[in-house]
């Protein structure tokens, strides 16, 4: 490999064009071009095939965040090695790599992971159920929620990459699972595709009463990835000894108010609340894969993805995710 940093061939990428105020729109981003990089020694040239749209990017694109105007937001992608001097990663090898929102990338060979999935398991599982989203769900299940047979577990953002795995793990433990979702189509998918016992649409005028009806014996465990009203409603129904995992604050990402917890309720019902930061649980990577991969192979764990075509679809896909309009995990196919 040479030491040049670019070639004359152009490739597309998506960059931040304006810091959002509240809900990000597609106009906050722009598609531009950059030279296809020429890898330096120890690097691989990758052509991106698929990447997922992650909500955590929202906080990075605020003023003062890690992504400035003209910068490319981060993303983990499924990519194909195109140029390589590494015998462990010859040309044509599919890998997982941190590429950002771009079509081509040059990355150090020691930072990629070879994609090696059994027949019948889609490659996108490596980005979702077997990736960071799945690890988040597994860690929340194993270390925060710990559902027992017969308990009631409520999952918000229940049809997404984290929620769908967490719901399945809770059912495998013998718990009764209730989905909190944004619309009736997601409610149907939660019940019919993902196997939740009940689903409550948080935009329904009577959603609090519907949640109480779906949880007649109270709520024993809750995975929170929504807004403050959802957390308030769950706390009203929480059982003594309930466990809550705070995995995401979607309204806060979009400039909403802080979420506050009522100390008297937590004390009176002996509720345990823990914050979920997946980097704290990297020791579970092997255990997570060993638990989830057989579920994918057997078809017990269903993947529900929303596919978008072409890098130009990334801005709109991100806006859909941050507004809750996506149908399953958003995957952009290059």
Overview of this protein structure:
There is one protein chain. The protein is α/β, with parallel strands linked by helices and 334 residues long. It folds into 2 domains: 10-122 and 304-333, Quinone Oxidoreductase, Chain A, domain 1; 132-280, Rossmann fold (3-Layer(aba) Sandwich), CATH 3.40.50.720. Helix content is 27%, strand content 26%. The two termini are 26 Å apart. Mean pLDDT is 92; it is low at 1-7.
Keywords:
single chain, 334 residues, alpha/beta, Quinone Oxidoreductase, Chain A, domain 1, Rossmann fold, seven-stranded mixed β-sheet, six-stranded parallel β-sheet, globular, disordered N terminus
Model regions low in confidence, pLDDT < 50 over at least 5 residues: 1-7
> Within the CATH hierarchy, at the fold level, what is the topology of the largest domain?
Rossmann fold
- In helices, the fraction of residues equals 25-40%
Assembly type of the chains comes to single chain
Q: CATH first level of the largest domain: which class? A: Alpha Beta
Largest sheet: 7 strands, mixed
Count of domain modules: 2
Number of helices: 10
Q: Choose one word for the global shape.
A: globular
- Arithmetic mean pLDDT: 92
Q: Structural class, please? A: alpha/beta
Order of helices and strands: EEEHEEEEHEHEHEHEHEHHEHEHE
| Portion in strands | 25-35%
